[in-house]
Amino acid sequence: MRIQRAIAIAKADENRLIRFIERRDRFLDALDWDSLPEQLAREAAMMDELLATELAEAACYVIWLEECIGFGVEDIVAVHDLQPLSVIRSIAALA
Fold first, then answer.
1. What gap in Å lies between CA 25 and CA 84, rounded to an integer?
2. Is the Cβ–Cβ distance between 82 and 54 less than 8 Å?
3. Contact 6, 65 (CB under 8 A)
4. The pLDDT value given to residue 18
5. What pLDDT is stored for residue 82 in this prediction?
6. Is 75 helix (H, G, I), strand (E, B) or coil?
7. The predicted structure's pLDDT at residue 95
8. N- or C-end of the chain: fewer Cβ atoms within 10 A?
9. Can you tell me the distance from the alpha carbon of 48 to that of 28, in angstroms, rounded to the nearest whole number?
10. pLDDT per residue over 65-82, tens digit each?
11. Rg of the chain over all Cα atoms, to the nearest angstrom
């Protein structure tokens, strides 16, 4: 795969993650937190941390791909899949 295509995919995944976080934040803002069980509130906080980590990793990945161009890389084997679903699966595995 051409490096430019990999960068486009990684940036699209990063933007998809940003939109997911924004939608999730709007949903959480509408919740009545006082009526939620304590465990659920803790899990939501854990998810915030995991999403922030995944977003930071997505940004680093895009930067790394762009730096690869500077080193003359033109093709790569695969692109790392950055999806909110991977974070959701991680939370589910903790339960």
1. 14
2. yes
3. yes
4. 92
5. 63
6. strand
7. 41
8. C
9. 11
10. 999 999 898 888 767 666
11. 17
Round to whole Å and give the CA distance between 10 and 42. Answer: 30
What predicted TM-score, i.e. pTM, was given to this entire model?
0.74
Kindly state the tokens that stand for 84. Answer: 């909110």
Nearest to 13 by CA among 83, 92, 88: 83
pLDDT grade for 22, boundaries at 50, 70 and 90: very high
Asked if residues 12 and 65 have their Cβ atoms less than 8 Å apart, the reply is no
Q: What is the Cα–Cα distance from 29 to 22, expressed in whole angstroms?
A: 11
Contacts of 16 (CB under 8 A, 6+ apart): 82, 83, 84
53, two tokens: 């980590």
Q: 84 vs 69, which has greater pLDDT?
A: 69
> Coil, strand or helix: which one is 2?
strand
